[in-house]
Amino acid sequence: MSGRIPRDFIDDLLVRVDIVDLIDSHVPLKKTGNNFVARCPFHVEKTPSFSVNRKKQFFHCFGCGASGNAISFLMDFSHLDFVEAVEDLAGFVGVEVPRESIEYPSTGQKKEDLSSLYMLMEQVAAFYVGQLRSSDEGKKAVEYLKNRGVSGDCAGDFMLGYAPDEWKALTSRFNPKLLLEAGLLVDKEGGQPYDRFRGRLMFPIRDKRARIIGFGGRVLDDSLPKYLNSPETPLFHKGKEVYGLYELLEKNAKPQRILIVEGYMDVIALAQFGIHYAVAALGTAASQAHLDLLFRFSSELVFCFDGDKAGREAAWRAMEPAFSSLKDGRQIRIMLLPQNHDPDSLVREEGVDGFVERVQAAETLSEYFFGHFSNELNLSEMEGRAQLVNKAKPYLDKLPESVFKEMMFARLKELSGWVGLDVLENAATLASKQVSKQHSKANRKQPQDKGRLSSARVAIALLVQNPRLAELVEQRDIDWNGLEFSGADLFKEILQTIVDKNPASQAVLLECYRGHLDEKSIKALALLDLQVPDDKIDTVFCDALDRLLTQARETVWARLLDKSKTEGLDAQEKELLRKMQAAKLFGAK
Fold it and tell me: Is the pLDDT of residue 55 over 90?
């Protein structure tokens, strides 16, 4: 469906769901004390370190550090984005996901419910499959597939079909308005809409949740264009989706590597030979969004390109998004095929074992990158080495801060012999440290855990873990003006969030901080084991808060007295000191 999911619904959903029941349906849990444990689904381990707490509605792995609420679990476990995870969670508890209506600025018309488009795409795909199997025209496509060695089972796995060579094959069977919105009709000004795909072998494009979002069509003769894809629609964004991902994940949810090839038939041909880890970009160069999507499922990506000039150019165009995506733990390799071969022809000639050996022996990104310049430039000359620095450095600058980035700069220095690189690296490092320093100052100061927990840390952690405690703070009518203590800004921020959002639980409060600057700090506080019995939480919190406020007032009192003797106080400070003197005189807290 279109439109934003209301925040109130998400909060209510987290209250409805029991995270223990949810996770137990994916990973069998065993009760141990107050928690439920299992071997972590996010990393390999022999003994359980994955813990789920029913009271907090929170999971945490003490081995790899994964943690969060029910939504976070589904995002990590099922490789979903936020919206998809909310939709799956709603399905788990049996409720529909409402949407806030979105209006087009120009017309005020509400967007169509996307569920009707998804249903249409399923129906059209079924129609195409039927045409492939039973129509006279479809026999041409069947013959083509047989000549390419594609079996009926493989064609069924990929839902291959055939679009009749007719102008109105779809308009006579389905809702024209929905067909237009789904990109299945072409609407020419002054004429009648007609079918976009005609006389083509059809490749349904499915997202990772098995929903058909678009189509690709291939002609069976020499007419052009050879391949035709769905246009951009509310369902289909070719810069964010790849062909074959759903089918890949059906065979292996956690592949060791993913092979990125150039076409639909490459994916299908490799699958026919049992190589089920290939995907293809949809008529466009691989983007950073493509790579980030694929890295959610595997830490190693292998680009596979034809060995001709066009293939080499395509390989080099992949460098820019590749460098931007390479965080620590990720690896990209480049596999250039022999001349006059594509994946289909090569796997037939060399066999599966030979093809897989080529995949495993593919050049690392670093080898390919510097090898490209070594072949292009004369590095024995000063001019060639200078060009190397000028051409290579902009790519290396795109790398996220990591050991790999440092090693790539070291390799550039080695090849170019330019001592000035040290200056650039040091300047970049200094700039990075300055940004980090400024960021740290902007962040709210966190109470430090040194041995015994500070009053501030206890109070803030208890507030995060038990949002209802905000009522006790409000009852005290505290004047926060001038009070200073470690973590004061964070405490007041959390308190204000609770007052504004009224979260029913810790899990709901954590959701308020998803993507927030303080998300990591809030999670750490949520995980802090204070070992406070349930019937003592209010007392311990109030005691910690009293100590905290007393310490803060004493600090401000001492500072004002000292300043009054040296520099003198302004009017506001004098008034604050007067109030504090009155409070001390009457014993107020």
Answer: no
